[in-house]
Amino acid sequence: MTRLTRSESQALTRLRLLKSARELFRRDGYAITSLDRIAEAAGYSKGAVYSNFPGKEAIFLAVLEAETGENLRDLLARLEMASNLPEIVDILAEWADERSQFGGWSLTILEHARVARGKDSLRRQEEIVRGQWHKLGAWLLARFPEADAEPEVLGALLFEIAFAPALTFVAAPSAGDLVRLALPPLLTR
Questions:
Q1: How far from 138 is each of 76, 143, 150, 177, 183, CA to CA, in Å?
Q2: What is the pLDDT of residues 33-85, one digit of tens each?
Q3: Taking the chain, what is the end-to-end CA distance rounded to the nearest angstrom?
Q4: N or C: where does the chain have the smaller number of CB atoms within 10 Å of the terminal CB?
Q5: Nearest partner of 157 among 146, 147, 171, 172, judged by Cα
């Protein structure tokens, strides 16, 4: 078996820590998830966490950036395959319905915002979230330039529908229903 280089080993450790942190933050929330629990779930010591991240807020923000980035890349890849407005609306409605099943993640993001210790951490969280809003809105406006909306506002609307915590425990309307209602009139002005 080939032995990993030091940098490969460090990258693997970081990846495992992020994976464990993602699962714990998603399942248990921000406050309950500790660095000890992340290290234990990944099979490392707390020192391994500190050699990769300065603290809990840093690992949370790394998870948030990875989670939202992957989510948006997958969505945009699906959207690229659509050829018209009804197909785009259907893809976004399906995405919203899928995302609304993960209400715990949106609550974790809100929980972090409530208990974050520093303004830099909150600013970074806002940058990550707003960046995702902007990318989704910009993609839609590139396809529908006649729409009268700012990219960030359009993306924010869709993310807020998809990740609304209340939609995780009500039968109707679904997040997809709300996307189908709100999106077509915005894009076809």
A1: 11, 9, 8, 22, 14
A2: 999 999 999 999 999 999 999 999 999 999 999 999 999 999 999 999 999 99
A3: 61
A4: N
A5: 147
Annotated domain spans of the chain: 1-53, 56-187
How far apart, in whole angstroms, are the C-alpha atoms of residue 68 and residue 50? 24
Q: Does domain 1-53 have CATH number 1.10.10.60?
A: yes
DSSP string of 5-24, one letter each residue: PHHHHHHHHHHHHHHHHHHH
Token pair for residue 87? 């197909």
Q: Which two tokens stand for residue 137?
A: 């809105």
Kindly report, residue by residue over 90-115, the tens digit of the pLDDT: 999 999 998 887 767 788 888 888 88
Kindly give the residue spans of alpha helices, DSSP state H, lying in the chain. Answer: 6-28, 35-42, 46-52, 56-80, 85-100, 103-115, 119-143, 151-162, 175-187
